[in-house]
């Protein structure tokens, strides 16, 4: 309480100083009692305060409020100090208890020899405690414990370093069993505890060491078992183990798949076996008799029968087995056997004689051609005779080349057994045959002989050489220049005509110059770079080899016809022929033909022009003739009417001729277009026949019309078809004698409508059949027919415009038949128009 009063006194003294400065005056000083004994002074001070005026009382009230706050703060401070004192007393008591507990744990921890090493978090300095004499001498520094290499062999020391680094960096715990350089067995345990890395090292002895060794052996055995189980599970071959009673105790997934079981337990419960009963019995017998079993057996897996190499051995009281898929090896073995047999059969089919002698020089194999070649007995050959015996028998039969020293010759032949390379020779036998002999040393020892009868080949070679000489002489006698260049571009062959034609040196050509060199020599006669590049590319090209024609006009005025022809051996042949005279004649003929064509075109143009010029006056004459024949113009005398009738007929004939010429000119110019539409065959024939009725009556000629019932109609230009039929009928009437018959018929085929016009006139001679359709070809042949010769030309032109054809069959003295085919296919009309 005295402390509170002292505090109050200090507060009031502060207030007194304020009052003395003009705020409270000297009365505030009386409020500061120093102790309970000074209560009387406090009463006196308060009585003085009563004498203050109201303004001073307000200041006094503020001071009293501050005084109350100070009192409360002082009381709270006193309580805090009292609580802190009590807490400090409790902590001291707890620390004492913890110290006792730590001492007790320390005594328990170091009751046995061990070392503790700790690294606080974020600190590389290690704190080491415990008995370091178990790894180092007693006078050693504790920090030397961290140098594991000083008391551990290199491999355990390296393992300890790695384990400690993993513990400090990642918090990975470890437990190691170590053997020191002095043979002591230690246990090192590392853990991360409370943010510290702690390593505990203690010695193992007695039962603990034995347990550790048993644990290590168990762990190694467990690791080995897991490894073997993992290998068995990953192996693609069925692996199994059986107990003493033959029951399945282990199976890998491949065994489960092979037996089509759901799991190992399913295979055990259902007693599924990989082998069938007979093979399983054989395996059990082998395991019982020899403790092992090996055999290649067929096994059905997944519905497929495959071959497996099955191996089983007794292990302990049971057995283990594995089945390795040998289907591929079995197939390869079978294929090898078949291949060997195929090779034997192939060698038997060879025309070459083959004999194989082994390292002991005995016959190991021969084919049938070898036996036939030497005419040897099969029994003798099957007895595997040696090489010398075979040669002696052949010599006795006079089937070997005659030799002055047979022994030396045979010894030289037998050098092939010690040689490393193939040797070739030719034997000329007494019977006139020639044999090619090839001796090939075998890698495994021995020699293979190959005999080929080359008698015919040598004869062919002699004939070939003779033929080459004949060809050379023939080539040299040719007037055509020939040169052959190889694929390397060099000249291989040439004839004298080539040298003369290009004015070259024969000696220089024999040196096989390159085509570029030859080109340089020939530039004086022909220097077109494009042609020479074409020749060079054709000679040196590998692909797109084909014949290339050439035509060269040289500087001397001569013209050569050439050809670049690739040969089968990769070479290229150049041929040149002087066609100067032929070219001159051809030019003359061409110029004459062009002149004739120009004259013919001029004739066509003239006819076309004249036809147009004639139509105008003809139209005028025809108009005035009709005007004069009209009664409204006045009467005519009989003679005038007769003359006017002659004028009308002549002008109509001339107008028809002019129209025909215009039609032909239009067709020839390609400007004629058909007005296509349905053409009624019956109506068309009727219209055409109306135009010749007067002539039929005048010449007493009967018209016979035959129309097939199914002819119907077709698509065409009706006007032009009527014109075709009219011209054919007019031509037939003109050539037919009086009191005869002219026929016209129509029928339909699969693709056309056929019109046929027949007459009984004098017929057409054979030399005239090809000309009857030409312009202005008109011959009376002794008949009444007169005309300009344009009717049949129009017939052919109009029929061909329709895509049809016209043909004439005629026999002199028996009449003429003209047949016109009009196609019914619209595509034919389009093609004809184009």
Automatic annotation (TrEMBL):
It comes from the Bacteria. Its EC number is 2.7.13.3. GO terms for molecular function: histidine phosphotransfer kinase activity; phosphorelay sensor kinase activity. It comes from Bradyrhizobium sacchari. The chain crosses the membrane at residues 58-78. SMART domains: HATPase_c (SM00387), HisKA (SM00388), PAS (SM00091). InterPro entries: HATPase_C_sf, HATPase_dom, His_kinase_dom, HisK_dim/P_dom, HisK_dim/P_sf, PAS, PAS-like_dom_sf, Sig_transdc_His_kin-like_C. Gene3D superfamilies: 1.10.287.130, Histidine kinase-like ATPase, C-terminal domain, PAS domain. GO terms for cellular component: plasma membrane. Residues 609-826 form the Histidine kinase domain. This is histidine kinase. It is an enzyme of class 2 (transferase). Keywords: Kinase, Membrane, Phosphoprotein, Transferase, Transmembrane, Transmembrane helix. It catalyses: ATP + protein L-histidine = ADP + protein N-phospho-L-histidine.
């Amino acid at each position: 309480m005295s402390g509170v009063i002292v505090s109050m006194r200090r507060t009031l003294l502060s207030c007194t100083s304020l009052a003395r400065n003009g705020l409270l005056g000297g009365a505030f000083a009386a409020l500061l009692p120093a102790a309970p004994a000074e209560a009387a002074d406090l009463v006196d001070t308060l009585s003085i305060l009563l004498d203050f005026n109201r303004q001073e009382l307000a200041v006094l009230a503020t001071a009293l409020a501050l005084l109350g706050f100070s009192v409360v703060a002082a009381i709270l401070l006193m309580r805090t100090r009292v609580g802190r004192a009590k807490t400090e007393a409790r902590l001291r008591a707890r620390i004492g208890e913890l110290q006792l507990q730590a001492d007790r744990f320390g005594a328990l921890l170091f009751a046995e020899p061990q070392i503790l090493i700790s690294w606080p978090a974020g600190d590389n300095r290690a704190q080491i405690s415990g008995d370091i004499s178990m790894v180092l001498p007693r006078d050693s520094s504790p920090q030397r414990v961290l140098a594991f290499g000083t008391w551990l062999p290199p491999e355990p020391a390296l393992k300890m370093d790695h384990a400690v680094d993993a513990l400090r960096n990642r918090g990975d715990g470890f437990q190691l069993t170590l053997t020191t350089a002095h043979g002591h067995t230690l246990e090192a345990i590392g853990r991360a505890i409370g943010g510290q890395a702690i390593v505990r090292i203690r010695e193992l002895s007695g039962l603990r060491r034995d347990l550790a060794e048993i644990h290590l052996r168990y762990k190694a055995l467990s690791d080995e078992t897991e490894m073997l189980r993992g290998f068995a599970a990953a192996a693609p071959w069925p692996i199994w183990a059986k107990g003493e009673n033959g029951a399945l105790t282990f199976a890998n997934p491949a065994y489960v798949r092979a037996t089509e079981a759901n799991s190992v337990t399913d295979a055990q419960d259902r007693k599924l076996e990989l082998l069938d009963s007979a093979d399983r019995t054989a395996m059990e017998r082998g395991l019982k008799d020899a403790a092992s079993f090996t055999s290649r057996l067929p096994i059905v897996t997944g519905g497929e029968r495959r071959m497996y190499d099955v191996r089983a051995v007794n292990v302990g009281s049971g057995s283990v087995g594995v089945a390795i898929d040998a289907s591929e090896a079995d197939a390869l073995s079978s294929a090898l056997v078949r291949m060997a047999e195929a090779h034997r059969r192939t060698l038997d089919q060879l025309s070459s004689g083959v004999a194989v002698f082994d390292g002991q020089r005995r016959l190991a194999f021969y084919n049938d051609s070898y036996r036939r070649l030497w005419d040897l007995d099969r029994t003798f050959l099957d007895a595997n005779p040696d090489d010398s015996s075979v040669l002696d028998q052949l010599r006795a039969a006079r089937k070997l080349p005659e030799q002055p020293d047979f022994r030396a010759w045979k010894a030289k032949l037998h050098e092939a057994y010690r040689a490393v390379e193939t040797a070739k020779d030719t034997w000329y036998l007494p019977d006139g045959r020639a044999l090619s002999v090839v001796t090939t040393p075998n890698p495994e020892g021995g020699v293979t002989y190959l005999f080929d009868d080359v008698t015919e080949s040598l004869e062919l070679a002699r004939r070939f050489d003779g033929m080459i000489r004949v060809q050379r002489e023939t080539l040299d006698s040719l007037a055509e220049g020939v040169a052959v260049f190889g694929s390397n571009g060099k000249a291989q062959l040439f004839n004298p005509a080539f040298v003369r034609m290009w004015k070259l040196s024969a000696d220089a050509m024999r040196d096989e110059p390159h085509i570029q060199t030859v080109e340089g020599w020939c530039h004086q006669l022909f220097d077109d770079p494009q042609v020479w590049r074409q020749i060079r590319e054709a000679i040196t090209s590998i692909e797109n080899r084909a014949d290339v024609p050439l035509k060269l006009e040289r500087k001397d005025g001569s013209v050569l016809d050439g050809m670049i022809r690739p040969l089968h051996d990769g070479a290229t042949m150049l041929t040149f022929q002087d066609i100067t005279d032929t070219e001159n004649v051809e030019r003359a003929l061409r110029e004459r033909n062009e002149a004739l064509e120009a004259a013919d075109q001029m004739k066509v143009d003239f006819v076309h022009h004249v036809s147009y010029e004639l139509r105008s006056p003809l139209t005028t004459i025809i108009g005035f003739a009709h005007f004069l024949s009209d009664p409204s113009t006045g009467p005519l005398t009989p003679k005038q009417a007769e003359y006017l009738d002659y004028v009308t007929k002549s002008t109509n004939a001339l107008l028809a001729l002019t129209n025909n010429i215009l039609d032909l000119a239009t067709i020839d110019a390609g400007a004629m277009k058909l007005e296509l539409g349905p053409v009624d065959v019956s109506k068309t024939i009727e219209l055409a026949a109306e135009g010749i009725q007067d002539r039929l009556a005048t010449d007493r000629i009967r018209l016979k019309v035959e129309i097939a019932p199914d002819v119907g109609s077709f698509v065409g230009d009706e006007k032009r078809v009527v014109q075709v039929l009219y011209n054919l009928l007019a031509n037939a009437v003109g050539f037919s004698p009086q009191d005869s018959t002219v026929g016209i018929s129509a029928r339909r085929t699969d693709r056309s409508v056929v019109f046929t016009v027949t007459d009984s006139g004098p017929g057409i001679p054979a030399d005239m059949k090809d000309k009857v359709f030409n312009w202005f070809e008109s011959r009376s042949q002794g008949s009444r027919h007169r005309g300009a010769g344009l009717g049949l030309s129009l017939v052919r032109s109009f029929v061909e415009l329709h895509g049809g054809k016209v043909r004439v069959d005629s026999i002199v003295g028996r009449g003429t038949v003209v047949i016109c085919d009009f196609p019914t296919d619209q595509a034919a009309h389009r093609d004809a128009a184009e």
